[in-house]
C-alpha cells in the first residue's frame, strides 16, 4: 500500500542524488574561487553536452555563475565528504572556503575557473541559459552549462569506485553494479534491443 509523503521532502526521499562540488570564480576571495555543493543536477543534453544545475538564486554561487558565466562541476568522492559537507553548509559570502579547506586546484584548459585536484572527473562549463521556473515563488533557478572540456584522472573508472550519493540529507555510497542498461531486458532476445523478448519478463 502506498502512503502519501510530505511534498517538501518527496523529491529528497524519493530520489538518490549525487552532491557535486561546483567551483566558481570569486574576485573577493583570497583564493579567487568559491565552492558550493549542488545535488539537483544532471545531464540535460548529449549534443552539445549540457549539464543543468538547480540552484537557489540567493546562493553566492548563483550570483558568481551569472556574473562570470563559467563554472566547473567536480565529481564527489567519499574522500571529499568533509569538504562537501563544509562547502554545502557555509556560504562563500563570508568565508573563503577554498582557502579554509586548502583544497588544491588545477587550471582548466578552456575556461578560467579551475577544477579540484582531488576530484577524479571535472567538467569545464560555460553558462548557456538560466531558466526561471514559471511557478510562483519557485525556490530554484536552472543554470544550464555547456561542457566545453572534461578531464578524468588517469585510470579512474567510475564503475570501479564507490560513488557518493545523498538521499534525504543522508550521505551514501553506491557500490554495487546490478547490470548494464539495455542488457537486462534484452538478455532473453540474444542481446538484440528491438527483438521482442521470448520469455515472460520476471
Ligand atoms: C548534500 C548537499 C546538497 C546540496 N544541493 C544543493 C542544490 O542542489 N541546490 C542548491 O541551491 N543548494 C544546494 N545545497 C546547499 C548549498 O551548497 C549551500 O547553501 C552552500 O552553502 C551555498 O554556498 P554559496 O553561498 O557559497 O554559494 C546543498 C548542500 C548539501 C550539503
- Euclidean distance between termini CA atoms: 21 Å
CATH superfamily: Electron Transport, Fmn-binding Protein, Chain A
H/E series, N to C? HEEEEHEHHEEEEEE
Strand tally, please? Answer: 11
CATH class designation: Mainly Beta
Unreliably modeled segments: none
Cα-atom radius of gyration: 19 Å
Total domain modules: 1
Strand content: 25-35%
CATH architectural label: Roll
Average per-residue pLDDT, rounded, comes to 92
- Give the helix level as a range of percent: 10-25%
Largest sheet: 7 strands, antiparallel
The rough form would be described as globular
Q: CATH fold name, please?
A: Pnp Oxidase, Chain A
Number of continuous helical runs: 4
Q: Give the strand order, joined by hyphens, for the main sheet.
A: 2-1-5-8-9-4-3
Bound molecules: flavin mononucleotide
Question: If you had to describe this structure to a student in words, what would you say it looks like?
Answer:
The protein is α+β, with helices and mostly antiparallel strands and 202 residues long. The chain contains four helices and eleven strands, in the order αββββαβααββββββ. The strands form three sheets. A seven-stranded antiparallel beta sheet has the order 2-1-5-8-9-4-3. A two-stranded antiparallel sheet has the order 6-7. The two termini are 21 Å apart. The mean pLDDT is 92. It binds flavin mononucleotide. Residues 19, 34, 36-40, 54-56, 59-61, 85, 88-93, 140, 166 line the site of flavin mononucleotide (FMN). Flavin mononucleotide binds next to β2, β4 and α2.
Attribute tags:
202 residues, alpha+beta, Pnp Oxidase, Chain A, 7-stranded antiparallel sheet, two-stranded antiparallel ribbon, 14% helix, binds flavin mononucleotide
